[in-house]
Design a protein that fits this description.
TIM Barrel, 8 strands, about 40% helix, single chain, binds phosphoenolpyruvate
Length: about 250
């Protein structure tokens, strides 16, 4: 059975102390997860060890928000998969639309990051999603399919199964505008069909596809109730303990 996942993406927010407090407040809610549920906190690099120390008692996980597409070397300011692995990090978000837009990350670059992450035994949380102009033109399926094809389709079925996908329409990220449950279900089902076409239905059915884009305490449960939506990647609402607690409780 595929996992239902609530993943937080703190982005470049919170001081170390605020991050500690937020985790303490969320952990204090003492939510018991079912076997098929997972909670992951995507925190800034300097907070990974602190966050891991706090959440491991609850069997929650931490995630980096990025890694570099080279193994090591003269890449000042970058962080490698090996470095993440050496501090016990097991997840890494890649391909967030903010990284694609502000840091020029291409589908090819992401395919290289995927190989390094999988080679290091980390779970990639691979983000994809279309801008507003593409949604308005009605070509979102083709757009996102190309992102999957160019970044993921060189992988073996065994490796593909290790990935978490986050579909995040850019027009819904941080805008307060959420995709409707119909829009989310439709494109998630499409993405799963694209995976099934290439890797077979059994493989496609094992992959968690999260929705991201203004998930809130008030809409999480409804979004997560869609057959092909396996939880959420959450930005703004993951910075408020009470909201993220409700979002975790919204998992199936
Ligand atoms: C995100 O950045 O991954 C995200 C979905 O942000 P928000 O929830 O704030 O829209």
């Amino acid at each position: 059975m595929r996992k239902q996942i609530a993943a937080a993406n703190w982005k470049m927010n919170l001081t170390y102390q605020q991050g500690e407090q937020l985790l303490d407040d969320i952990l204090a809610a003492n939510i018991e997860l079912k076997d098929n549920q997972e909670v992951i906190f995507g925190v800034p690099f300097p907070y990974l060890t602190m966050a891991e120390g706090k959440v491991k008692a609850k069997n929650y996980h931490v995630s980096a928000q990025n890694c570099y597409n080279q193994k090591s070397g003269a890449y000042t300011g970058e962080v490698s998969v090996e470095m993440l692995k050496s501090i016990g990090v097991k997840h890494c978000i890649i391909g967030h639309s903010e990284r694609r837009e502000y840091f020029g990350e291409s589908n090819l670059m992401l395919s290289e990051k995927l190989d390094l992450l999988l080679g290091g035994g980390l779970t990639p949380i691979f983000c994809c999603g279309e801008p507003l102009s593409i949604r308005e033109a009605g070509t979102q399926n083709e757009y996102v399919e190309k992102q999957l094809e160019e970044s993921l389709f060189h992988l073996s079925a065994d490796d593909l199964k290790k990935i978490i996908i986050a579909y995040e329409p850019i027009w819904a990220i941080g805008t307060g505008k959420t995709a409707t449950t119909e829009q989310a279900q439709e494109i998630h089902a499409y993405l799963r069909s694209v995976l099934a076409k290439k890797y077979g239905q059994e493989v496609a059915d094992e992959i968690s596809i999260l929705y991201g884009g203004s998930v809130k305490a008030t809409n999480a449960k409804e979004l997560f109730s869609c057959a092909d939506v396996d939880g959420g990647l959450v930005g703004g609402a993951s910075l408020v303990a009470a909201d993220f607690v409700e979002i975790i409780k919204g998992l199936n």
